[in-house]
């Protein structure tokens, strides 16, 4: 959201400043006698009452994120902009210090995507919202949080893909439902726990590439891709999870800036998905309507198109500076302002902002509810579950600590001593950060194992002066680990990659270490986006490759536990890892998901090339077998019958039962993935190569069997036409379990092609 061009935030200032954020006094204050303070009235009536007591000038001051106090009404100032992507984060509404020096820092969303565990997403969200309320009660945070980011990780170069759970719309939809549920709901159903904000609406996935930044980018998106890929997570967030707000993005969509896009904000978000809340602009995005997209020519027209499209709250100051002028020249009327404020204040009312703290459990949270033992344990568990073992040649892992007495373990590379790097972006002050070195030392403590570290090189840059020390250590070690990857100077908000290889001289160092070491090499990658690891994958000198993402405050302990077998890895890639040349085959400006001219296709659903590692790939220290829980047969379904279900695409047509057995020697989790592949459709249809429609993470002891259920809904069988319409087509639909199609069966739809919606 923020940029150096628009909003520069000094972290030091945020840390040191304590900005009181008092609640309105509805017991003895000036508002106490008015309907706004009467909890028995509807949200709408209460908000209308408050707005009616403001002058026009006062109303305008409340249309921006940093809203000043209206002292004559006893309305405190309020900062709408707080952040909590994976824990309370530095932002204008959040201040760390005093009794609140830190907050739990969980793994990044890309890690949570790799866990394929919506239960842990919900648990994390519950803790984040509890800590957010505790901060708020101490005047150190607001109640409205500009999180989560649910854009699709469409292109591996995107700098903010790390903020998302990955490339798949179904996975992202399940993630956001669990997250919003955990953030907004709690012990008191009368109130929102906090107000979340799904962003960035819509088709936002470019920062700054090849001379075009996000403020100028016009995303040309087909109706087919909009319906099939970009909208489903927002549908889940708005329609199903009932998020309190959404954020319109910097980019334009098909020529219309997002924050001026009536079709997106009104037709889709409000009318189709029934948004019950407000729309906030990305910070500075109202100004870009005129300044960078040149969609309007005057500030008055800019205010008008944004307000009329449904942008209720301006993160920035454009409304503050220019709304009065728009009102004066009649491009807007005061009712437009009132409507925006109505939506904003209704959310604050739903948060209990204007109600007595007595009887509100959320107003009782305090410093003792931050960084609890439960939160610390969950941060380790989440990191564990997100780690993905990509290669394990010769069963090189896990290491057996009890057989390593007197041995030397070398940790080489620029991410082994990572600290805040493990937090990714949108992070806050963590109570502690355990890096891999400390993690290895903790696991091997008292075992007479010598753990040594050599930096080797920086993440980026060409300095090789550290090679000699690294190679000397590699030559003398019994076990050698290379820790490499990316950081926020490579992938970040405002910064896309131009290459998907290891940056700088990391690969050169890895190759030299592999050549000189007497021991096999184990590679650990810390990154958000995918990195081409073909050389390491194919090298007989590299025994294992592990991706740990940005695993949060306990990431170093988690990776050490995995390496030494104290935790059996089960994470799966939430993205496709492409070969290096992919970036030369398709422009980031090309938004098309399906293959075509100068586009080999995007994500596992449409990529026609050979991936380095596929979406859903991940290994374990044990093995699993799959069997159908019911006889495998070809089901025949008449399209006419499905068309009589009242156009409810969530109608279940069948349920697939899968028996999963741990056939290996150790207990572990398995992530069971269910896909559908459509074949023999009418020739003009170009369906996905395959499509995820179910997943479940389960834990199995040795020899244990569990049954997993996958309901197949009509939605899974729908095809999206080029015009965005959805259809049921006759053809064969293959249902298969696992990336390697361990077991499969078929469905035949018979009848004539029928339009669903």
Automatic annotation (TrEMBL):
Residues 1-20 form the signal peptide. Keywords: Glycosidase, Hydrolase, Signal. The keyword Hydrolase applies. Residues 670-741 form the Fibronectin type III-like domain. It holds the Pfam family Glyco_hydro_3. One of its GO terms (molecular function) is alpha-L-arabinofuranosidase activity. One of its GO terms (biological process) is xylan catabolic process. InterPro entries: BXL, Fn3-like, GH, Glyco_hydro_3_C, Glyco_hydro_3_C_sf, Glyco_hydro_3_N, Glyco_hydro_3_N_sf, Ig-like_fold. Belongs to the glycosyl hydrolase 3 family. This is Fibronectin type III-like domain-containing protein.
């Amino acid at each position: 959201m923020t940029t150096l061009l628009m909003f520069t935030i000094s972290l030091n200032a945020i840390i040191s400043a304590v900005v009181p954020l008092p609640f309105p006094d509805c017991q003895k204050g000036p508002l106490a006698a008015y309907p706004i303070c009467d909890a028995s009235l509807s949200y709408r009536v209460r908000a209308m009452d408050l707005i009616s007591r403001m002058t026009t000038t006062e109303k305008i001051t409340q249309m921006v994120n940093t809203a000043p106090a209206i002292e004559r009404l006893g309305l405190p100032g309020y900062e709408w902009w707080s952040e909590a992507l994976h824990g309370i984060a530095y932002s204008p509404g959040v201040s760390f210090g005093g009794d609140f020096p830190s907050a739990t820092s969980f793994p990044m969303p890309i890690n949570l995507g790799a866990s394929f565990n919506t239960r842990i997403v919900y648990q994390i969200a519950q803790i984040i919202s509890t800590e957010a309320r505790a901060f708020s009660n101490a005047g150190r945070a607001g109640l409205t949080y500009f999180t989560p980011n649910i854009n699709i990780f469409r292109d591996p170069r995107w700098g903010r893909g790390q903020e998302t759970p990955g490339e798949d719309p179904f996975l992202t939809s399940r993630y956001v439902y669990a997250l919003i549920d955990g953030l907004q709901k709690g012990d008191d159903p009368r109130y929102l726990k906090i107000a979340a904000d799904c962003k960035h609406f819509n088709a936002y996935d470019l920062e700054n590439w090849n001379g075009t930044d996000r403020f100028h980018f016009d995303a040309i998106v087909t109706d087919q891709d909009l319906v099939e890929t970009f909208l489903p997570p927002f549908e889940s967030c708005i329609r199903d999870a009932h998020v309190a707000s959404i954020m319109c993005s910097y980019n334009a969509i098909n020529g219309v800036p997002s924050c001026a896009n009536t079709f997106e904000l009104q037709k889709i978000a409000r009318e189709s998905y029934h948004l019950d809340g407000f729309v906030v602009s990305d910070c500075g995005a109202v100004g870009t309507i005129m300044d960078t997209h040149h969609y309007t020519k005057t500030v008055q027209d800019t205010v008008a198109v944004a307000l009329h499209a449904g942008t209720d709250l301006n993160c920035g100051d454009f409304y503050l500076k220019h709304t009065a002028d728009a009102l004066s020249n009649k491009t807007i009327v005061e009712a437009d302002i009132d409507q925006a404020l109505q939506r904003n204040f209704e959310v604050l009312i739903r948060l209990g902002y204007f109600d007595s703290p007595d009887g509100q459990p959320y107003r009782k949270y305090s410093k003792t509810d931050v960084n609890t033992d439960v939160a610390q344990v969950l941060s380790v568990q989440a990191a564990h579950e997100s780690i993905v073992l990509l290669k394990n040649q010769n069963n090189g892992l896990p290491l057996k600590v009890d057989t390593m007495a007197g041995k030397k373990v070398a940790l080489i590379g620029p991410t082994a001593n990572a600290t805040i790097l493990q937090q990714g972006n949108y992070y806050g002050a963590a109570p502690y950060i355990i890096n891999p070195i400390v993690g290895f030392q903790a696991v091997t403590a008292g075992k007479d194992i010598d753990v040594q570290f050599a930096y080797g090189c920086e993440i980026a840059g060409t300095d090789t002066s550290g090679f000699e020390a690294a190679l000397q250590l590699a030559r003398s070690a019994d076990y050698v680990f290379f820790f490499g990857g990316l950081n926020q100077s490579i992938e970040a908000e405002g910064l896309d990659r131009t290459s998907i290889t290891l940056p700088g001289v990391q690969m050169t160092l890895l190759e030299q270490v592999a050549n000189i070491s007497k021991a096999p090499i184990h590679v650990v990658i810390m990154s958000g986006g995918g990195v081409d690891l073909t050389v390491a994958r194919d090298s007989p000198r590299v025994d294992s490759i592990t991706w740990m993402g940005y695993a949060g405050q306990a990431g170093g302990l988690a990776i050490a536990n995995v390496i030494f077998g104290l935790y059996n890895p089960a994470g799966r890639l939430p993205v496709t890892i492409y070969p290096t040349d992919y970036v030369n085959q398709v422009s980031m400006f090309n938004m098309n998901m399906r293959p075509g001219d100068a586009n080999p296709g995007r994500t596992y659903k449409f990529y026609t090339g050979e991936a380095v590692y596929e979406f859903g790939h991940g290994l374990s220290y044990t093995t699993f077998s799959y069997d159908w829980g019911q006889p495998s047969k070809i089901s025949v379904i008449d399209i006419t019958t499905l068309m009589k279900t009242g156009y409810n695409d969530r109608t279940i047509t069948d349920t697939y039962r899968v028996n999963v057995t741990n056939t290996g020697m150790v207990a572990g989790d398995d992530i069971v993935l269910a896909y559908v592949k459509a074949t023999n459709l009418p020739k003009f249809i170009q369906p996905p190569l395959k499509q995820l429609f179910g997943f479940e993470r389960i834990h199995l002891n040795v020899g244990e069997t569990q049954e997993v259920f996958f309901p197949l809904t009509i939605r899974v069988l729908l095809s999206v036409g080029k015009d965005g319409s959805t259809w049921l087509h006759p053809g064969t639909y293959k249902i298969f379990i696992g990336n390697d199609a361990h077991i499969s069966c078929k469905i035949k739809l018979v009848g004539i092609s029928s339009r669903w919606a």
